[in-house]
Amino acid sequence: MSSYSSLFINSSSFTPFNYSLPPSCFHKVSYFSTSRTYPITLIYKKINFLQCKKSFNKRPFKKRSLIAPKASNKMTITEYRDEEEENPPPLLVSEMSSRPRRIALFVEPSPFAYVSGYKNRFQNFIKYLRELGDEVMVVTTHEGVPQEFYGAKLIGSQSFPCPWYRKVPLSLALSPRIISEVVQFKPDIIHASSPGIMVFGALIIAKLLSVPIVMSYHTHVPVYIPRYTFSWLVQPMWMVIKFLHGAADLTLVPSAAIAKDLEAYKVTKANRIRLWNKGVDSESFHPRYRSHEMRLRLSNGESDKPLIVHVGRLGVEKSLDFLKRVMDRLPDVRIAFIGDGPYREELEKMFQGMPAVFTGMLLGEELSQAYASGDVFLMPSESETLGLVVLEAMSSGLPVVAARAGGVPDIIPDDQQGKIGYLFNPGDLDDCMSKLVPLLRDAELRETMGKTARIEMEKYDWKAATRTIRNEQYSAAIWFWKKQRAVFLRPFQWMFRCIFAVPEVDYR
């Protein structure tokens, strides 16, 4: 039967029981709960036309839509149609305030040591899960794991460098030590970053423990493969992604554009793809951090000249050679690259003799100052799953000119063009220059657009995004998991429980 599902439903606005029926029409059923020991029991109304016809006719049945109204936020994935599987019911207030969960996160590479787009996402996610009262275990690659992080249990797994990108550490996380730690933690749900190597370990442990698993997709590897290895590996990579996410109970994506890509390749059922809402630390990235000293540093002492800023990992897949073509047309403009990566040495040679500064990695207040001290943020990358640096630049009051690709159009939608930023056609130098040059020449336009961008970014909050994942997406994953528990794995699960003395978990 065809069904429609809203991805974001306000449970407070949904009233499932609003019809008067006789007692014979009521049946007691058990509804899924995230609690281990306290099932939530509801009364639902079974409409039996033999027993209830008289009273049913007295009050006509009104068709009530379960689809939430579309939000104005362009990033929201609002509806998916699925022909094969029904969707979880709307959440009730009782579930929104459910008892704390025990959440095991498998994150690769480490959100504590490896600087990447999802570092802030996972650090804020862990922080606010703990604030919401959940117990959190983080399994990640072993380098740079801190002693403590907001009271979460941190476990480092021995890692090895990625063969094609040696600065990226990988780990399977399937040692007896890791398995024992996860078993003792008794997770209610496992959440793994994808794609990678550790996600395989997380999947195996989740299946053997018989625990729901959520995978969040952060790196669009099929786009990177032709830049680093061989293009014939793209299709096998899609097969790997399809295997992983087909086995997951729910897939989280950072943008609607990535959701469409995964749906187009039939990676998993459309109603199991959900959005991890964007967020930005609007206190750490703020116009107040503008610094004359930092501007002098980024402009190589020529602070009166227009300054373009680019922040991010310096990788060949980021289309940074496009910036050389831009700078060839702007001899009086300065550019600063904040970040590091395997492409840095080649870029420095490319920009030799040009007004370009490479700062390397900046963190903390220095990074905040670097954002706020520029004039325009330029993003040529076509492979961003979201583009958190774009959010941080806008939060810092910087107008953005970015390629219309990946997840960036979700940040700067068409109806906001010229108000909070500009998008240009990927690789189109003339289109880019037509939007960049007016900003560099007009300080008043820059200031107006920067202020509007800052106001827009103040709407996005990591705590609200975390609450949505915890209360809505995790609950949906548990519901899907309950519907399709794999029978053929039960003998292996029994053996696993015997070996590791795994306790029974009641998901009623």
Walk me through this protein's architecture.
It contains 18 helices and 19 strands. It starts with a strand and ends in an 8-residue tail after the last helix. The radius of gyration is 25 Å and the shape is elongated. The chain is of the alpha/beta class. It has a 7-stranded parallel β-sheet, sandwiched between helices. The protein has a 6-stranded parallel β-sheet with strand order 16-15-14-17-18-19, sandwiched between helices. Strand 12 (250-253), helix 8 and strand 13 form a beta-alpha-beta unit. Helix 6 packs antiparallel against helix 7 (234-247) and helix 13 (388-395) crosses helix 16 (443-457). The chain has helices at 53-58, 93-96, 119-131, 176-185, 198-209, 221-228, 234-247, 256-264, 292-298, 321-328, 344-350, 364-372, 388-395, 408-411, 429-441, 443-457, 462-483, 490-500, and strands spanning 3-6, 26-31, 40-45, 79-82, 102-107, 135-141, 153-157, 160-162, 165-170, 189-194, 213-217, 250-253, 273-275, 307-311, 334-338, 356-360, 376-379, 400-403, 421-424. The longest helix has 22 residues, at 462-483.
What descriptors fit this protein?
508 residues; six-stranded parallel β-sheet; 18% strand; disordered N terminus; seven-stranded parallel β-sheet; alpha/beta; elongated
